[in-house]
Description:
Number of strands: 11
Strand order of the largest sheet: 1-3-4-5-6-11
Radius of gyration: 17 Å
Shape: globular
Low-confidence stretches: 124-141, 213-219, 221-228
Distance between the termini: 46 Å
Largest sheet: 6 strands, antiparallel, barrel
Strand content: 35-45%
Number of helices: 2
Number of domains: 1
Mean pLDDT: 78
Amino acid sequence: xxxxxxxxxxxxxxxxVSLAILLCAIPALAQSSSGYILLIASxxxxxxxxxxxxxxxxxxxxxxxxxxxxxxxxxLQNKSVKAAGTYSHKSPNGNVLQTGVWIASELVxxxxxxxxxxxxxxxxxxxxxxxxxxKPTPPMMLGGVPTGGLAVFRIRLLPVKGSPTTAVLxxxxxxxxxxxxxxxxxxxxxxxxxxxxxxxxxxGRVMFLFDKALNEQAREGAPQEEKAPETSEQPFN
Length: 237
């Protein structure tokens, strides 16, 4: 099988797996008081007319980059995460060094900046050409309030060719009460094997959707003012 075709099949499979993770986890989040939906350069965040929206890009000091997209959910109460996506590792001149899929294995920490209910009205309604679908779908069908914050995950990188490795992925959504030092939206990545750091956010939209407020409204059967999540969640030890 040609390598390019093999890569396409792998990417298609991880797309289906990631969608399954997201869709299966959302009903469970409805019973949770601390559940979040995670979007990394996917779905309605992508704009076909703006290449800076997807994928999310992290660069190293020497110009290497990781381009990533993905989706999933995480729960602070259970300290659990179900998320996956695709990635490409590129050289400074843009040559593809490695491609594959990533799967989250651990939620390390999450620090919330607070809710930003108006953020969705500023997003394009409908799913763009990201790897997680192209059918028009209202963002609010995901069932959550946009929330700023910094999430840290331990992930496994599974390349099409080569050995798997572990990494730490930081996802920063610059909404609500954002600290000055985290004003830039995007991702950062640290490869644990050689401690390589990709610490420059170089594009791509990310978002957290907090489920509690909308679920409380649905249970009570009447509209009410959206309740913001607490402005700070302490890292886990």
